[in-house]
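Chain X:
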Amino acid sequence: MTKSQQYFQDMVEYNKELFDEFKEIHDKFALDEKKYQQAFNEVGEKVQGIIRKYENLLCQHSEGGKYGKFSEKTADTFWKYIRGAFPKIDFIGMK
């Protein structure tokens, strides 16, 4: 298991209630964007805050030095897992 995958699993596990709520609204949003846009954005903002926190934890040690490119790839891999679970994640905040 990669470090990115481990951080993703830890993030979802430690914030299970929030991610379960987001999964439910995410799936409804995927079926009817107009009807669920507001709820999706409200819960999505909380989820984005958690995601940013874990992304920072994942990449914080390698960003400044000679591993900067590695950090970028690590973040991309982390987001790949997020988008795999929540394909509409990038629509948070859009109108």
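Chain Y:
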Amino acid sequence: MPWIVGIDEAGYGPNLGPLVMTSVACRVPSDLDGADLWRVLRAAVRRHPSRKDGRLLVEDSKLVYTTARGLLDLETGVLAALSPWQTSQDVCLAQYIDWACPDSHADLRGESWYSGSSRLPVATPAGGFGRPAERFRRACAKKGLAWGLVRSVVLCPPRFNALVDEWGSKGAALGHALAELLRCNRHLEGEAEPVTFVIDKHGGRNTYAPMVQHALPDAMVLAHEESMNRSRYSLLGLGREVRLVFEPRADAGHFCVALASMASKYLRELLMLEFNRFWQVHVPGLKPTAGYHTDSTRFFADIRPAAERLGIPEAALWRRK
């Protein structure tokens, strides 16, 4: 049974807050390798935000979440499809991070604004994702799908800026996060089973072989196609068939990438809730921010005096690229 691993990020563009990149692994029967999982799981999932019928909304996170629509659909989809918790369990953000991105927790604990105390779910009523979660599990079991590792990498401004300084490129942050996720997923259960990584392209980049080779130095990377529409690679020497496909807008064409996009966006939004809450304590009346360029300039100007009083340097808050 082959593995499909979708990878996507959220928060690459903002000046404030973290970059989050996530991988979502799914084991599928051989006859469903390359199949449209939206169609396979149509009894439990939907793609249209306006069609409220009890199924999970799984789509590019930019369509699932808007400030007007709020976190409800995004949170329900991520927790119901991917998380290990039952609806009755009392969970905080720190527990979620220990599950999704344990290697990033030390950096987060070094952030002045992070507490990890936010209670989950944030927007979904108590017990609100139990029924769609059970529906999703039944649909997956019926089709023989099994969900594996969910892993996120969180890069806060200090680490983000250090990578930019070291490599001279903002793309180094994406490369660093991707390398961590490739290494996390190289030992998926079933050592002989093939693995296909489907990854949303990093901006306009077409060439990924050096990045992949750096991430997995014991493999030999073979490039098969490098174009605007698709970049394809295979890896030799890992004891199993491993393929990588980079596509623009992969979250619109691949179910696992859409879920990775949603998981990345959800975690970033949870962290931004804590970020805004911290600064609103120190700057009464402060309007919250999503961290994107125009509004981040306003927000940073508003918090600068408080940051100076607290001894928090600009490089710990502001992503320079």
